[in-house]
Amino acid sequence: MDTILNTAKSWLTDFFDTATKNEVETLIANNTEELKDRFYKNMEFGTGGMRGVMGVGTNRINKYTLGKSTQGLSNYLKKVYGGETIQVVIAYDCRHNSDTLARTVAEVFSANGIKVFLFSELRTTPELSFAVRYLKCHAGIVLTASHNPPEYNGYKVYWTDGGQIVPPQDGEIIAEINGLGFEEINFKADESLIQLIDKEVDEAFITESVANGDFHAEGKDNFKIVFTSLHGTSITAIPEVLKRAGYQNVTIIEEQAKPDGNFPTVDSPNPEETEALSIAIKKAEEIGADMVVGTDPDSDRLGIAVRNLDGQMEILNGNQTMVLMTRFLLEKKKAKGFKGNEFIATTIVSTPMMEVMAKDYNVEFKTSLTGFKWIGKMIKDFPESYFIGGGEESFGYMVGDFVRDKDAVTSTLLACEIAAQAKANGSSFYKDLIDCYVDYGFYKEKLISITKKGMSGAEEIKQMLKDFKENPVVSVAGSKVKWIEDYNTGTAKNVLTGVEKAIEIPNSNVLIYETEDGTRIAARPSGTEPKVKFYISTNTTLDKGENFQKVSNILDTKIDQILSELKLS
Hints:
The protein is α/β, with parallel strands linked by helices. The protein has 17 helices and 24 strands. 49% of the residues are buried.
């Protein structure tokens, strides 16, 4: 506690503003537990950058923690690009303080002699990724906490290729930041180096989004869409993209169209959550719409709902959407002719069906750790290869490589193209998905997230993962465990034969069990939230579409059994 108290007292110097010092003094005097949580560690970079609760303290998002990160990044950029005129671009979302924090970040960059392009208003994360290369910048920043609760904000760093920072840059940047004291932050802005941007970049991004996502589907005039931005940034792009692609029957949920960091109409602005799309689904039922699309606050994730075999709106999970999007893109590429250098990509906790599909189309399949920065790295590391598309189970997808991060704007258009064409063909998005199950196997997944907040919560998560590793699962739903993949050590072991092999991707705190029948159970801590996540994947064959519901029920029963065995239900 003495260390925490001393850290807190270091925020009482004249460098810090009066309001900050007053709050720290109040915490020291009256709230020991809150003081601990705010000062027991520094904000860290995870799979999605730096993200956390806003407020005073080293373990909070505020002008000083972001200022320190920006100062460290400025120092690093000048080391790497010392002989160049360094440029960065900054965007921000709808969250509380995002605009003022973005301005602070811009001022610190400018104080260090770095040219800043700052979006004049909130914009989507995919547009920021696009803007890095469009404006020939050395780095990009977006102020966002994605789908986290209202009290959160965050800071994601992008590199010259438009992708998020990856090794070795991330470690080198973090070391630069950690070597600084707060008093080393230069807040003295050079306004001549800050340039506001908007329409020119908007137009370029929207044009590219339509070019990559519009496949001239039939039946657009007869296709009804309900769209909600969930109070976030996608309202600045998706309606225009859909309009330019020829979709006229788009109903926007007006009560959720205004950007609002309180997210007043939802419990969580996360399209992974059923409740988040409830208002849009209700509207879709009222007007007989074919599809519902909702995006998270920074518009990198999308959730969709389509009509199932009973004609009812059903929300699809990220794996289901990813599979159908990828197959559609593969079919389009196949029609033009494969050149032999194409690849698709996903993550180690996403559906194995992606690999089965890649083999069927004879294209390369690449897999990565969780986080789209790794998929962006693939594109950068293999410039001779052609990236068709790829995604992850957490409702993110990327179409082509003009954006190097999850892109709900272009993915929304792609989803509409698939569904409109399917309807014109006498099928549906849902029926086309069932066709995938018949062709590649019926894969069904389930995600369990367990939240553990605060300092004690971090220890609980650490212990849960340790127990999961030190008490190995022997069998799952009657099938023997065959492989144990330990990404911490970078080894995969066949426990039935004793054979070991190296895992050819970076080490990470992930453990995966795979059984003889292909069932997979993965466990990992979230990189952006105080959660531990368990991913369950089951599969079987589906001989024909007519048996879909029967086989689906069998897999549901199996998943329930697994949850019970693992004490996760």
